[in-house]
Design brief:
The structure is a single chain. By secondary structure, this protein is α/β, with parallel strands linked by helices. It has one domain: Vaccinia Virus protein VP39 (Rossmann fold), CATH 3.40.50. The protein has six helices and seven strands, in the order ααβαββαβαβαββ. The protein starts with 8 loop residues before the first helix and ends in a 9-residue tail after the last strand. Bound molecules: S-adenosylmethionine. The site of S-adenosylmethionine (SAM) has 23 residues, from α3 and β2.
């Protein structure tokens, strides 16, 4: 088992390939498995600092794609081509603000790798993670095109089953997944929603 914080093979591979964080391999694995990213997509990346998901997504969406990263902290690398950045707290950011600041009305893919600063108190960390993942889902439901995809990290704990139920209701496919690059000591899982169902009549931002 790899200790959290110790450099491992994924960390060294990320450095040697020019990625700013090892978490890139979680996205790469889930992209290969679930077909998340395609050329020309508009992608919203919540919790994007230091920026490895933006680096990877930029290569996958290509020059015709658009990327928007959101985080409390500025990216740790230069923004890749086609990317813009909003420095904000996800818990206070509205879908209308994202649209106004980017000029993008709807996204093909909403990613969230947002993680709270952990305290070591399991219940508190899980509750904070759940609140952030719920905010990511709410953002995705407001901004995804019909047919769009949602992928979000959450620390497994009370309330996660309900989050998965919400995703199953709003998407044609909803499921949880633990990528291989996720440290075995970590309590994180990723929730995937594929095929956003059309919003019910009368729903608005
Ligand atoms: C695990 S890192 C993301 C790594 C990123 N996917 C990458 O590949 O470089 C989690 C990020 O969530 C951000 N975060 C935590 N709480 C947040 C909040 N309330 N609003 C926005 N970002 C937040 C942190 O600042 C941190 O950069």
């Amino acid at each position: 088992m790899t200790r959290i914080g110790s450099p491992d093979a994924y960390y060294r591979r990320a450095k040697s390939q020019g990625y700013v964080a090892r978490s890139v391999f979680k996205l790469q694995e889930m992209d290969r498995r679930y077909g998340l990213l395609r050329p020309g997509q508009a992608v919203l990346d919540l919790g994007c600092h230091p920026g490895s998901w933006l680096q990877y997504a930029s290569q996958r969406v290509g020059p015709s794609g658009r990327l928007v990263g959101v985080d409390l902290q500025l990216p740790g690398v230069g923004l890749p081509p086609g990317a813009s950045f909003i420095q904000a707290d996800l818990l206070g950011l509205t879908p209308a603000e994202v649209q106004a600041q980017t000029g993008i009305k709807a996204f093909d893919l909403v990613l969230s790798d947002v993680a709270p600063r952990t305290t070591g108190v399991k219940d508190r960390d899980c509750a904070a993670s759940l609140e952030l993942s719920q905010a990511a889902l709410d953002m995705a439901l407001a901004l995804l095109k019909p047919g769009g995809t949602f992928l979000a990290k959450v620390f497994f704990g009370p309330g996660v089953e309900d989050l998965i139920r919400q995703v199953k209701g709003a998407f044609k496919l909803g499921k949880g997944h633990k990528p291989e690059a996720s440290r075995s000591a970590s309590k994180e899982i990723y929730i995937l929603g594929k095929g956003r169902k059309p919003a019910p009549p009368g729903a608005s931002l």
